[in-house]
Amino acid sequence: MERKRYLKKTSLNEALELFFKHPALSNLTGSEDVPTSDALGRITAEPVFAKISSPHYHCSAMDGVAVRATDTFGASEITPIQLEGEKFSPLDTGDKIPDDYDAVIMIEDVTQISEDKIEIISAATPWQHIRMVGEDVVATEMLLPRAHRVRPYDIAVLLSCGVLSIPVRRKPSVAIIPTGSELVDLITDADYKHKSPPPGKIIESNSHLIAGLVAQWDGQPNRMGIAIDDRDEIKKAILKGATENDIVAINAGSSAGTEDYVPQTISELGELLAHGVDIMPGKPVSLGIISGKPIIGIPGYPVSAYIVCELFLKRLIYKLLGLPASQLSKIQATMGRRTPSRLGSEEFVRVKMGRVDERLVAVPLSRGASLLNSVVRADGIVRIPSTSEGVEQGEKVEVELLRPAEEIENNILVIGSHDIVLDMLADEIKISHPEITISSAHVGSLAGLTALRRGEAHIAGTHLLDENSGEYNISYIQRFFPKDEVALINLTYRQQGLIVQRGNPHGIQSLSDLVEKGLTYINRQRGSGTRILLDYQLKQLGIEPDKIIGYERELYTHLAVAAAVASGAADAGLGILSAAKALNLDFVPIAEERYDLAIPVNFLQMPQLQVILEIITQAHFRQRVEALGGYDMRDAGVTNFP
Q: 182-191, 437-446, 513-522: which has the highest mean pLDDT?
């Protein structure tokens, strides 16, 4: 079947202009009246006016006595005046001022002589300590303008002024249509509630991502069932969505594949404004109008879906509510690593962040459009313009924040080798110090030490074996840093070995078996401690790396290696025991290695670092780690200055 082509790839600004200036998007959603007590967060459709004044009667602003000011003239400490009978009236704060009285004297300035007699030592001025009618709000005064988001204190003033209901914008309803014959819904499909789908079937989750974003942006999400890759089915779903909703968001099927019917369907049913926008990720977006309703074809890769929703769907919902699109907060940071980009496409790079010394550093995460976890882990997004070929290490960039700035200020940046113990440490810290976050990027031990040397991290996780001495980490610290500049603090010892399929069907007992039996291997990336250990072991056995089938195939974490073995993509891979246990795989021990935290000495007194060092020495944390299997915490917290 002939593969389709993009209608015309447009720039982001051009696509926004084409879409949002279309006449069909000039109308707002209608209004509806809601009880004032239920209006929190809603957007006012009309100005709201006070029905009654606040306060609606003259009332006392103090506990004291009501008096006539003329009866108090001449009172002083030298010439006190006594009032009795009807010349005063006791009252509390908020009480109505009795008729014929025009002032209040605070109870602290009154001496009680008897039940019906008091003495005062200062004169009162007319309307002293009295809240007059309308002091706060006068009836008919405008309380809230249109296009205002209702806040808790708005509700209080509305009710105090007798407003029991208000007109608000109806939430724009968004039909969310996931497409793809390969999709399965774990929530509605009983066949897959307790088992993994077979290969070729994909768990449908993007509609939940989109629905959550819609709800967060004041819309009303309406998830529709999965539409299979059939032109008529997709057409029927789009027409139903457009009839019953204000917006239609179709997920997947908007690219240029043989079964991507969305752009053509939009064109047949209405007007296709754009197909393909020069952004990364998110290029295969479709924008159109059907029966006066805006249609967005959202790419199927989850990161692409998120980016497209942020750029187009969020703005669309806000436009129908009569609001300017809210922008993510922005902050200046220093790029921690050179980040090349493709000229001609605006790229959205996910980053981790932390303040190292006086610099706020942004470290790029994995950039694949399918890696939704990169958004989960990210602190912000850096936009690389289409006119740029990338960002240099050390260059100033503007970061759109996905987390509050104050949280990022307390981030501890850990860059280097990955270990599950770091995740457990991050969790343990959140129990006792929720204000502190460990923000980690998994790049391998050598890359971690390089980042530490460049001032891009607080900690580098490292397990680098010196082939000459058989010692871990020390020689590398001596090579990378001046003496006594960096401390090595032990986190754990751990078992490294071959992760193999359950039951070890190939009978693997050593690295030699990989060559002798012609088995496939999955490797860690160059510069990782595991890769260095492998090369050391191969050298000891006299095995050339090119004899290992798959030596050149690289992954970045132990769990990724375990997943490759579990899926059958490889027969074995070197990794840690806890990763094998996590995926119910077997394990052939090769060596025990020392995993240390490399920390610049000048950071050791940081309060956040002190918390980390305290936790790793606690007995319950050690027990929790060792329960995973393959870990020995005997030296946790022991410090060495290479």
A: 513-522
